[in-house]
Design brief:
five-stranded antiparallel β-sheet; Pleckstrin homology domain containing protein; 31% helix; 9 strands; SHOCT; 197 residues; single chain; alpha+beta; YokE-like_PH; PHb_sf; PH-domain like
């Protein structure tokens, strides 16, 4: 992405994660703008504060339940709902960048979802509304990958024919970097693998 990314975004990116869109609140009444960074793996909501402080909410695509997008005459608005029911809202976003961002989110959700996602779209003369819904019963393709790592950790002998411990450690790190498993889950599973060596 050609735009300069704020430090609060770049320091929270994993490995080779790439920011595809950076949406910023257009009204500058606040000292620091709120932003949504759409990456190739997740959505980052950043509420930047003074003196280098910020609040960050990371939502991997696998954990999204619903994304609402409203575009009006002047600006756009996003409302993101996670599987656990948490909501993040950001309004007064640029229209054209927001439209590209909702397309990116739709494509990312379709890539990981086993079942097709639900799309409600309402276009009026001067406004547009999208609602993307991931079915509750859907299992993402990446979650299947996580399950295979978990099951391969059970009853593994030192002469594992299918995957070496090093390969499984790399796969585990990918899952952590993509935000699929937490840091605690990563450390617990990593330690089990290291103990097998």
């Amino acid at each position: 992405m050609s735009e300069d990314l704020p430090d609060c975004v770049t320091e929270n990116l994993g490995g080779d994660e790439e920011v595809v869109h950076l949406l910023e609140k257009r009204l500058r009444m606040e000292a620091k703008p709120k932003r949504i960074a759409i990456t190739d793996r997740r959505i980052l909501y950043v509420d930047q504060k003074l003196m280098g402080r910020y609040d960050l909410k990371s939502v991997p695509y696998q954990k999204l339940e619903k994304v609402e997008f409203d575009s009006g005459l002047v600006a756009s608005e996003f409302k993101i709902t996670t599987e656990s029911g948490e909501e993040v809202e950001l309004s007064w976003l640029g229209k054209s960048k927001s439209k590209e961002a909702i397309e990116t989110i739709k494509n990312a959700l379709n890539k990981i979802a086993v079942e097709p996602i639900g799309i409600d779209k309402r276009k009026k003369l001067k406004s547009e509304r999208w609602i993307l819904r991931k079915p509750k019963e859907s299992i993402s393709k990446v979650a299947r990958k996580e399950e295979s790592v978990g099951s391969s950790n059970q009853g593994t002998s030192s002469s594992n024919e299918s995957k070496s411990t090093v390969d499984r450690l790399k796969e585990l790190k990918e899952l952590r970097d993509e935000g699929i498993i937490s840091e605690e889950e990563y450390e617990e599973k990593r330690q089990k693998l290291v103990d097998e060596l």
